UniProtKB/TrEMBL annotation:
The active site is at 342 (for fru-6p isomerization activity). Homodimer. Residues 24-163, 196-337 form the SIS domain. Signal peptide: none annotated. Keywords: Aminotransferase, Cytoplasm, Glutamine amidotransferase, Repeat, Transferase. This is Glutamine--fructose-6-phosphate aminotransferase [isomerizing]. It comes from Plebeiibacterium marinum. It comes from the Bacteria.
Length: 346
């Protein structure tokens, strides 16, 4: 893989280091636009990236389904940076999308898991997530590791572009270093989460709601339920609920709301009220100690308090666990769901 994807990923108290993209850092920091191309779960990770890049790096971002993008005639310029995200590094649509963007002169960066796969070989630089082999077809740790890399990139570019002053930058780095121990705390609630799964295992539909960078987490929660338990599920931006999905809500509809404390908190609380007013069953992912939502929701799953930029990494895990237990209780093969392939190479 030549000179790309070299170097290690590390975080210490004062800096983030993404060895594989050092050479293209000037291109990234001066990019007029970042285009993220991916499929499935990787597209959801890219959409978290969109929120974080815009917030911290202050660069316009477009997130594209590679399967659409490759068949359009998109306007791509030489000062665009295209980021391809793919667990397998072999997804045919993502590969075709970056080949096209490369021909039009864009700088191509990859975020991939499988070392030496096809997508990294078509990029100018990139980062291996080193998440290990995904045994299951449905991506889980690939998602959290892709989001981790995108979060690090957003902070790094933000810092280089002068948007993040010292104290905030250090605080954000510190927050990243706390993720593993916070995830350990969340994993301790597995039995409690399994109990919630038991109550909803016979659902025929489910709705997932989130706002800001937690909206893609809602999409990913819904996708995990669909992929492994075959329950129809939809992820929606919470504020869009009133434009359609609200018609579906009744006492049989479980509504998973990702509602940790951030700048949208008051708004998501009113979205929960709207669901409860229509007798929907609310399962809310909340910041620990949130009594307000506890008094409104049917169930809450608490995650440790964190900076809002870290919340996608923490809140997706209880949703993955719930889908896993529902699938097992329904007798589904969680590692090899029907009709799904690990790498979609055609
Ligand atoms: C994309 C993807 C996965 C999904 C399934 C099918 O793969 O949609 O997100 O879980 O395995 O493919 P990739 O490009 O991230 O390897």
């Amino acid at each position: 893989i030549g000179d790309t994807f070299r170097g290690r990923i590390s975080i210490d108290k004062t800096k983030i280091f993404l060895g594989g993209i050092i050479d293209v850092m000037p291109k990234l920091t001066q990019a007029k636009r970042i285009i993220i191309v991916a499929c499935g779960t990787s597209w959801h990770a890219g959409t978290v990236g969109e929120y974080l890049f815009e917030e911290y790096a202050r660069i316009p971002v477009e997130v594209e389904y590679a399967s659409e993008f490759r068949y359009r005639n998109p306007i791509i310029n030489q000062d665009d940076v295209v980021i391809a995200i793919s667990q397998s590094g072999e997804t045919a649509d993502t590969l075709a999308a970056i080949k096209m963007a490369k021909e039009k002169g864009a700088t191509i960066i990859g975020i991939c898991n499988v070392v030496g796969s096809s997508i990294p070989r078509e990029t100018h630089a990139g980062v291996y997530t080193h998440a290990g082999i995904e045994i299951g077809v449905a991506s889980t740790k690939a998602f959290t590791s892709q989001v981790t890399v995108l979060t690090m990139m957003a902070f790094m570019i933000g810092r280089k572009r002068g948007n993040l002053y010292d104290d905030l930058y250090k605080k954000l780095i510190h927050e990243l270093t706390l993720v593993p121990e916070k995830l350990e705390i969340i994993l301790k609630s597995e039995n409690y989460i399994k109990g919630i799964a038991e109550m909803y295992k016979d659902a025929t539909n489910a709705l997932y709601l989130g706002r800001g960078c937690l909206f893609p987490v809602a999409l990913e929660g819904a996708l995990k339920l669909k992929e492994i338990s075959y329950i129809h599920a939809e992820g929606y931006p919470a504020a869009e609920m009133k434009h359609g999905p609200i018609a579906l809500i009744d006492e049989n509809m479980p509504v998973f709301v990702i509602a940790t404390k951030d700048k949208s908190y008051e708004k998501i609380v009113s979205n929960i009220q709207e669901v409860k007013a229509r007798s929907g069953r609310v399962i809310a992912i909340v910041t620990e100690g949130d009594e307000t939502i506890k008094n409104m929701a049917d169930h809450v799953i608490e995650v440790p308090d964190s900076h809002e930029s870290i919340a996608p990494l923490l809140t997706v895990v209880p949703l993955q666990i719930i889908s896993y237990h529902i699938a097992v209780m329904r007798g589904c093969n969680v590692d090899q769901p029907r009709n799904l392939a690990k790498s979609v190479t055609v």
